């Protein structure tokens, strides 16, 4: 297999440090640099917990020009992730984005940019294969059960709510379900937010607690029955086979792929 040269943004983070391991463990992947908001000019090896000798850049464009990567893996924050993704496309680098918190407008803008530049990008709200199946099964179930609520649960350091996965699940369900307001037509929230966020009438509830990693239950209700579809990630390694798949596939596409379900065979 041809070597794929990779830059990781957010390499010191919970996901980024797993991605550094993944790249190191994959024969045809080669880490050429990392991007951080500090430690300019140091080697990653100088930081505790890493033994990879690659340069750290704080300026992502300088990093692209000097190290000429094929792929950027972005695992940062919603605000920074958008800037990095745009800069990658403008510099001919294919982004694989795990960072969540992008709006519909952001996605449209990035899609337009991939079309203009003619290079691929993958934005995956969830890299765990089980989570992709959970979303697909939920979409299947929604054809038969129109009443559905999504309960996503994450660690308490998460910046965005609802989670990228929760939102993507609602979007996928909405493609097969007519817009419908659920619950009693006269229901009233005594405390704002009690009924959760509302996407086309689908209610989304976000739980944030220490001890959690990433979990989601999609709850369907029908006459005298409920159906629950649940996925749990117990560690960040659970996301890495999806990251690998995305890096390999981003080299083969020339448009924006939003969601790993679009490349899973
Ligand atoms: N798609 C998935 O499967 C998946 C799974 C887990 C997390 N995530 C998402 O990935 C992102 C990262 O999650 P995390 O738990 O690793 O967060 P984290 O806070 O542990 O890591 C974020 C990293 O980004 C770095 N960073 C911040 N500003 C930066 C900048 N300007 N330039 C470079 N790096 C910068 C931070 O230093 C930190 O190391 C979040 O958006 C999260 O929602 C996605
Ligand atoms: O830990 C996080 O943050 C996660 N974010 C993604 C999301 O927003 O759906 C995927 C799961 C973990």
Automatic annotation (TrEMBL):
<keyword id="KW-0963">Cytoplasm</keyword>
<keyword id="KW-0220">Diaminopimelate biosynthesis</keyword>
<feature type="binding site">
    <location>
        <begin position="164"/>
        <end position="165"/>
    </location>
    <ligand>
        <name>(S)-2,3,4,5-tetrahydrodipicolinate</name>
    </ligand>
</feature>
<comment type="pathway">
    <text>Amino-acid biosynthesis; L-lysine biosynthesis via DAP pathway; (S)-tetrahydrodipicolinate from L-aspartate: step 4/4.</text>
</comment>
<feature type="domain" description="Dihydrodipicolinate reductase N-terminal">
    <location>
        <begin position="4"/>
        <end position="127"/>
    </location>
</feature>
<protein>
    <recommendedName>
        <fullName>4-hydroxy-tetrahydrodipicolinate reductase</fullName>
        <ecNumber>1.17.1.8</ecNumber>
    </recommendedName>
</protein>
<feature type="binding site">
    <location>
        <begin position="10"/>
        <end position="15"/>
    </location>
    <ligand>
        <name>NAD(+)</name>
    </ligand>
</feature>
<keyword id="KW-0520">NAD</keyword>
<comment type="similarity">
    <text>Belongs to the DapB family.</text>
</comment>
<dbReference type="GO" id="GO:0008839">
    <property type="term" value="F:4-hydroxy-tetrahydrodipicolinate reductase"/>
</dbReference>
<keyword id="KW-0028">Amino-acid biosynthesis</keyword>
<keyword id="KW-0457">Lysine biosynthesis</keyword>
<feature type="binding site">
    <location>
        <begin position="98"/>
        <end position="100"/>
    </location>
    <ligand>
        <name>NAD(+)</name>
    </ligand>
</feature>
<dbReference type="InterPro" id="IPR022664">
    <property type="entry name" value="DapB_N_CS"/>
</dbReference>
<feature type="active site" description="Proton donor/acceptor">
    <location>
        <position position="154"/>
    </location>
</feature>
<comment type="function">
    <text>Catalyzes the conversion of 4-hydroxy-tetrahydrodipicolinate (HTPA) to tetrahydrodipicolinate.</text>
</comment>
<dbReference type="InterPro" id="IPR036291">
    <property type="entry name" value="NAD(P)-bd_dom_sf"/>
</dbReference>
<feature type="binding site">
    <location>
        <position position="155"/>
    </location>
    <ligand>
        <name>(S)-2,3,4,5-tetrahydrodipicolinate</name>
    </ligand>
</feature>
<feature type="binding site">
    <location>
        <begin position="124"/>
        <end position="127"/>
    </location>
    <ligand>
        <name>NAD(+)</name>
    </ligand>
</feature>
<dbReference type="InterPro" id="IPR022663">
    <property type="entry name" value="DapB_C"/>
</dbReference>
<dbReference type="InterPro" id="IPR000846">
    <property type="entry name" value="DapB_N"/>
</dbReference>
<comment type="subunit">
    <text>Homotetramer.</text>
</comment>
<feature type="binding site">
    <location>
        <position position="38"/>
    </location>
    <ligand>
        <name>NADP(+)</name>
    </ligand>
</feature>
<feature type="domain" description="Dihydrodipicolinate reductase C-terminal">
    <location>
        <begin position="130"/>
        <end position="264"/>
    </location>
</feature>
<dbReference type="Pfam" id="PF01113">
    <property type="entry name" value="DapB_N"/>
</dbReference>
<keyword id="KW-0521">NADP</keyword>
<feature type="active site" description="Proton donor">
    <location>
        <position position="158"/>
    </location>
</feature>
<dbReference type="Pfam" id="PF05173">
    <property type="entry name" value="DapB_C"/>
</dbReference>
<keyword id="KW-0560">Oxidoreductase</keyword>
<dbReference type="InterPro" id="IPR023940">
    <property type="entry name" value="DHDPR_bac"/>
</dbReference>
